[in-house]
Write a structure and sequence with these properties.
Order of helices and strands: HHEHEHEHEHEHEHEHHHEEEEEEEEHHHE
Mean pLDDT: 89
Strand order of the largest sheet: 14-15-13-12-11-7-10-9-8-16
Oligomer: single chain
Shape: globular
Helix content: 25-40%
Strand content: 15-25%
Length: 421
């Protein structure tokens, strides 16, 4: 039996290794890309300044503190208590309440703009003019006009310009993209995505002015709504995997659970049409947390179900048998047998282990870590970022217009020129 086990292990490793290559559209280039991502990032750590130290800004500073290729050189927020709080994580960073102080600093090479979406434009334009590398959180803006200004500035910059659609750097999503390109779905039927979390979203403040600043997501004048601020990440994933841009959108929205003076719906549904009669249904609510957040891409041969760090392929009973799936790790997913998508499969195999059995089923690095690491690598290697100005702008257009469909209840037909810079 021990001899059988050794033979089985070797066969399994070979089968899984073959699977990794089988589903890679271009095995050689993918392998080289993987090796490039594993190489140490050259040069000293990139000196980064973070502008905007709210909830997400705190996540950014915490993640940057763990990143060997980055040095947190400056922190900025117009609200001094936020600067003081961030200083505990970054004691060696210079603190500012005016973003222009960060841009004037010769010690800062790159800036991350994490302010509310409606405040991005002037900060990004000034940062590009100051000759800084820029990482701008998504969405770029809450209007197409401002998003276009930002994207044009980023596209025309001689420095790195990256948009914070971190799914483009997600190791799992990048791994699954190889399967999508191989045609594993068969004929694409459609997509579904949701982002549900029960939360009022309103934050307390010491005075009315500060209350309005803190709760910018609740008002149409300063927010792109649930689909624009959250759903944009899943819309971008659909743009990427479906290799196309939306044709039309129709949506619905209502204030169902939190009638507290906001004018942004707390519950939305939207149907976005893509080329080839493929439609994506998006649902988001702040009234129920049921099933949280995930995306599904459904096809005639198989379906791909993805959370941020976990993925499964559910094959149709009569789909072509490829051989390797017999040996792959499986879990129950949507009451079906799902084949686990293991992002680090190649690395695990190289260690002489079995993916999903002896190695972790989730990627070692969190998506935000990967996105910031990609930003610093692009700076030091003068390479293309994971999500550049065009991809970020096109996702913003899709999300902003989808939000307009939700607010109006009318069908919006996308014009080709909307996506062009």
């Amino acid at each position: 039996m021990s001899d059988f086990d050794i033979d089985r292990r070797d066969f399994l490793k070979g089968a899984m290794a073959g699977a990794v290559l089988l589903f890679t559209a271009d095995a050689l280039s993918a392998d080289e890309a993987g090796k490039a991502e594993e190489k140490p990032i050259p040069g000293p750590p990139v000196a980064v300044g973070v502008i905007g130290l709210g909830v997400w800004g705190r996540q950014l500073t915490t993640t940057l503190a763990k990143l060997p290729s980055a040095k947190l050189a400056a922190i900025c927020d117009k609200y001094q208590p936020y600067v003081d709080r961030a200083a505990k994580t970054a004691p060696n960073a210079a603190g500012f309440t005016d973003y222009r102080g960060v841009l004037d600093s010769k010690d800062v090479e790159a800036v991350i703009v994490a302010t509310p979406s409606h405040l991005h434009k002037q900060i990004v334009l000034d940062a590009v003019s100051a000759g800084k590398h820029v990482y701008c959180e998504a969405p770029l803006a809450v209007t197409i006009e401002e998003a276009a200004e930002i994207a044009r500035a980023g596209k025309g910059s001689s420095k790195v310009f990256q948009v914070g659609l971190q799914g483009r750097s997600n190791l799992l999503y990048k791994h699954v993209e190889k399967f999508v390109r191989s045609g594993c779905l068969g004929k694409t039927v459609g997509a579904y995505a949701q982002s549900n979390k029960r939360q009022q979203g309103r934050r307390a403040a010491p005075d009315p002015e500060r209350e309005k600043e803190l709760n910018w997501r609740l008002y149409r004048a300063t927010s792109a709504g649930l689909i624009g601020e959250q759903g944009i990440h899943q819309i971008d994933l659909a743009n990427w995997y479906l290799n196309g841009l939306p044709i039309s959108a129709v949506g619905f929205g209502a204030i169902v659970g939190w009638n507290d003076g906001r004018d942004v719906p707390d519950t939305v549904q939207c149907v976005i049409e893509y080329p080839g009669d493929v439609r994506m249904v998006y649902m988001s609510t702040q009234v129920s947390s049921f099933s949280s957040e995930y995306s599904v891409f459904q096809g005639s041969d198989s379906t791909l179900a993805l959370r941020e760090n976990r993925g499964w392929m559910i094959k149709e009973a009569d789909s072509p048998l490829l051989g390797w799936e017999v040996y792959a790790k499986k879990e129950t997913c949507f009451e079906e047998t799902g084949i686990c998508m293991i992002a680090d499969a190649t690395k695990i195999l190289a260690q002489g282990k079995e993916p999903g059995k002896e190695g972790a089923v989730s990627p070692e690095k969190e998506p935000l870590y990967c996105a910031l690491e990609n930003f610093t690598r692009s700076i030091r290697e003068n390479s293309k970022p994971a999500c550049g100005a065009i991809e970020g702008y096109q996702a913003a257009v899709a999300a902003i217009k989808a939000n307009e469909a939700v607010l109006s209840g009318n069908k919006i037909t996308f014009q080709k020129e909307w996506f062009e810079l």
